[in-house]
Amino acid sequence: MRRSKTYCIVMAAAMAALSIILDYLSVRTNVSKFTIYGLPLLITGILFGPWIGALAGLVVGFITQMIYYGLTVTTPIWMVAPIIWGFVSGLLAKLLIKDNKLTIAKTIIIVVVTSLAATACNSVAMWLDGVIFEYPVSLTITTIGIRVAIALGLDVAYCFIIYLTYPRLARGANKKMPEN
To answer: Which helix (H) or strand (E) holds 135?
Structure first.
């Protein structure tokens, strides 16, 4: 057995909890937020695959929406971006990482594609939120560049952290479990 289901569940839950804490500690502005909450979701997707990553993202999306806004019409829309962090990173990792070898180029591809997908999703969510609740939609359009720049800036840190920690994390995630 490569790894137990219990190990995967516990690690995904721990990463989801860490992501929620990091989101709570983020710096928020009217147009964006400075946060590294996506890092634990990226790691979850990379280590455990797209579906476990998506599930962790679903939990993070739902809980953070409840903390900040409660249940609203747009809650499901805002929950998609955290799901993307876990799912896309897991899907790309599954396609790119062979024999647990993660190169810096593969790390950059996984992180940048996932980050831009999540940023695009949040931009669409902002636009839909503006349409539904009738606030200036122009705010969404004029701030896309700022949000993309912030995302790419954070991607540098994400790439650095993931590339340096992946060998140790992958060893733990793929640790052979004793047979009962």
So the answer is: none
